[in-house]
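Q: Mind making up any chain with structure tokens?
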Amino acid sequence: MSSPKRVVLAYSGGLDTSVILRWLIERYGCDVVAFCADLGQGEELITVRDKALRTGACAVHVVDLREAFVRDFIFPMLRANAVYEGSYLLGTSIARPLIARAQVEVAAKEGADAVAHGATGKGNDQVRFELSYAALAPHLRVIAPWREWDLTSRSALLEFARRHDIPVPVTAERPYSTDRNLFHISYEGGILEDPWSEPPEKMFLLTSSPEAAPDVPVDVTLEFEAGDPVAVDGRRLPAVELLAHLNRLGGEHGVGRVDLVENRFVGMKSRGVYETPGGTILHVGRRALESLTLDREVLHLRDSLVPRYAEMIYYGFWFAPERQALQRFMDECQKDVTGTVRLRLYKGNVTLVGRRSPRSLYRTDFATFEADTVYRQRDAEGFINLNSLRLRIRALRDRGGAA
């Protein structure tokens, strides 16, 4: 196979992609275009452009994807209530298909014949990136250096960086890696690889520890329209601003920390620590509103499909037809999820304290324990008799009895 002429690298400025940028130039003698997706990393992006150029990039694209990230990826995922293995709100997983989509768009603009990423051969991200490339730009060559080079450890990468005078934010004393976006921040590797070891408190960037959080709880009111949050405490906010506001509020009160040993798509278990303050608040709030507005069978059917939907995102099948078809069902279920939820934040907890909806199916006149005129309690006897009939017949058969 001939060497690529121009490669667009998904570049973060961290250890792996900084080394990869230089390695691509040395290995293939090609032009490398650094592409950095602005997903809300904040100050991390300040030095990205200069660092990429100093490391050898022929061009740098820093693309603001924050609005698309929240509107087209996070909110659809939240409408499906996606949670992987009971805890993980998929903050890293949901970012990868958007990064890949924007990366192939840059490749088209630059006339590139290849794309590259910094995911390791042990992780999920290699699958997420490459399934997305295949769905969106199957003609592009994919280069995954971690599956090609002989730099087989973080320490080897650090040595390569030192030899080539590449500054990196990771040191041997603090070797865990992080991935941050507007929805969450993840931590893995290094000192976190021992699942018995407690994460160091100084590691967390978005949330206060529950012990250090304010001693006075705060109530927050969320308004939803067709499953999407539109206002906080009576103030309508654009999607990005709304999520950023809830991140600050939840982070102050220690909301959204998760420590999970998860099953990677490639077959091994790994430990990840996550902070998702705003996403946790939105997840709890939507579930509360759904309890008022969703039909029982629709809710139960939807919930039975949530693990499968979450797997599709975790495994990297965002652009697959099955995820797109299931998304249409999830969105249909959300059409009546409109109303207001009141939540209380206190020392890492999100507690529901009230909900109401103009589309509510909850009827006090039916549910009351007081006297009513709309429900005949004697009707329950026939309902129970019919539903128990198959159980009675089975018991009579097994006992050899007669009816």
Observations:
- The CA atoms of residues 339 and 357 lie 4 Å apart.
- The chain has three domains: 6-65+92-172, 184-294+336-356, 375-399.
- The first helix runs from residue 15 to 28.
- The radius of gyration is 25 Å.
